[in-house]
Amino acid sequence: MIGVAAMPTIAQAESFSKLKGQDYAIGKLTKGKAGGYGWVVSNGSKRFFCRLDASLAYVDKKEMVSILASGRLIKLDRAAFEASIGGPDPSIPQWSDLQAGRVKPADVGSCTPAA
To answer: How far apart are CA 110 and CA 71, in angstroms?
Structure first.
């Protein structure tokens, strides 16, 4: 039988809600090592990278963006999008809020320790 002690330690992921509740500071939107967007969340001694989980964001009254996992942004016509879904969707975040780190837990994916 192979012992568990011989296995390397696996980094613990944390939930964004838990980190936010522990007064971790949320940084501005940045790109991670793999190119995807997310935020560095820290409390001074510990840092986590929390990935962006939203796939759409409103830019202004005429434009929105589709956010790909690779970090690529695709511009969309907001009027055409809203016409196809029957009106504005209040669950879609503002791009400026995402950039500034003003995020809701629904827009954030997993958080992993940052180096």
So the answer is: 16
SS3 annotation, the chain: CCCHHHCCCCCCCECHHHHHHCCCEEEEEEECCCCCEEEEEECCCCEEEEEECCCEEECCCCEEEEECCCCCEEEEEHHHHHHHHCCCCCCCCEHHHHHHCCCCHHHEEEEEECC
Distance (Å, whole) CA 53 – CA 105? 9
Q: Give residue-wise pLDDT tens across range 52-95.
A: 999 999 999 999 999 998 899 999 999 999 999 999 999 999 99
Q: How far is CA 26 from CA 4, 23, 115, in A?
A: 35, 9, 16
Q: Which residue has the tokens 């936010």?
A: 20
- Burial of 108 (C-beta count, 10 Å sphere; 0-12/13-18/19+): buried
Which residues lie below 8 Å from residue 109, measured CB to CB, with a gap of 6+?
16, 38, 50, 51, 52, 53
